């Protein structure tokens, strides 16, 4: 009986893995495989032109980062971008969702309008903002018209990264707004009705009921924001024509990885080491965010 049960269990397990095999194959080929290959490359000096060769250099690629000023600048720019953009886009998404969930007249129209940037290609949005940020662009024309000083958004190292931040906060907040809107529908109306009977103000209901009950969603939004902002590439690439300028002010870790991997000969191993380091940073940041955030709701 035991042997029969074991054969049945093995047969069922085999059938399960058979049906799972396409997904497992995709996972192996396109996720686990590249990750392991990147780890392998990070410990080698790679020659891809001519005769392909892999020379084991141990931790030399990682030690090189300590003396690479551009890598340090890219990491600083990326961390600055993450620290500013993630809280701002999360707060803006929450405020927009709470506002559009109050029965505002024409709220369906505003929801559609706010969500439109999410449907637009990132490259297209970047080109539109570059036109607006141009010396003779829309923003400077408006500033000049009302008598305020104009700015060289694309050429001033002190504000170039800030210009990208503003664009991304505006374009990514609507996506998270929709997630918040869905979560707001799950908060029982009885909580707000009880608060009204107790004389709570709009702000008190928002701070004491809405925000605490959205903790799981806020945690999810923050994690997605962390992962996305650490991987900033396309906007920085288009803004600076791939250079990370002006004066490396828009250089990010992913853009630097691209430069070393595809624009420098013999630096594929170093680019892999940078990619591996970035993956570790994202993993640690995500784990810390989950550890220190309260994900449980109050109902």
UniProtKB/TrEMBL annotation:
Its annotated compartments are: Cell membrane
Alphabetical keyword list: Cell membrane, Membrane, Transmembrane, Transmembrane helix, Transport
Query: Superkingdom, according to UniProt?
Result: Bacteria
Q: Give TM regions.
A: 21-43, 79-100, 112-133, 159-183, 214-233, 268-288
Q: Does the keyword Transmembrane helix apply?
A: yes
CDD domains in the cross-refs: TM_PBP2
Q: How does it sit in the bilayer? A: Multi-pass membrane protein
Which residues belong to any copy of the ABC transmembrane type-1 domain? Answer: 75-289
Q: Which PANTHER family match?
A: ABC TRANSPORTER PERMEASE PROTEIN, INNER MEMBRANE ABC TRANSPORTER PERMEASE PROTEIN YCJO
Say which family it is in: Belongs to the binding-protein-dependent transport system permease family.
Q: What is this protein called?
A: Sugar ABC transporter permease
């Amino acid at each position: 009986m035991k042997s029969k049960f074991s054969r049945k269990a093995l047969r069922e397990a085999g059938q399960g893995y058979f049906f799972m095999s396409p997904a497992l194959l995709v996972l192996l080929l396109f996720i686990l495989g590249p990750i392991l290959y990147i780890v392998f490359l990070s410990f080698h000096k790679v020659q891809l032109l001519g005769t392909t060769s892999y020379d084991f250099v141990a931790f030399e690629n990682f030690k090189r980062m300590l003396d690479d000023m551009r890598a340090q600048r890219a990491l600083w720019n990326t961390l600055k971008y993450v620290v500013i953009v993630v809280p701002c886009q999360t707060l803006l998404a929450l405020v927009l969702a709470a506002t559009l969930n109050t029965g505002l007249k024409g709220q369906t129209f505003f929801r559609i309008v706010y969500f439109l940037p999410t449907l637009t290609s990132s490259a297209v949005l970047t080109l539109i903002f570059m036109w607006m940020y141009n010396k003779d662009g829309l923003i400077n024309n408006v500033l000049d018209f009302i008598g305020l000083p104009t700015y060289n958004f694309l050429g001033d190292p002190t504000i170039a990264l800030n210009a990208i931040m503003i664009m991304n906060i505006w374009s990514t907040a609507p996506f998270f707004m929709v997630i918040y809107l869905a979560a707001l529908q799950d908060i029982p109306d009885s909580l707000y009705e009880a608060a009204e009977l107790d004389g709570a103000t709009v702000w008190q209901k928002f701070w004491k009921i809405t925000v605490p009950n959205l903790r799981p969603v806020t945690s999810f939004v923050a994690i997605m924001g962390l992962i996305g902002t650490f991987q900033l590439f396309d906007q920085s690439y288009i803004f600076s024509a791939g250079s990370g300028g002006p004066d490396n002010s828009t250089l990010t870790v992913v853009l630097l990885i691209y430069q070393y991997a595809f624009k420098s000969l013999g630096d594929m191993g170093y680019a892999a080491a940078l990619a591996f380091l970035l993956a570790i940073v994202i993993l640690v940041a995500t784990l810390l965010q989950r550890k220190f955030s309260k994900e449980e709701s109050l109902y």
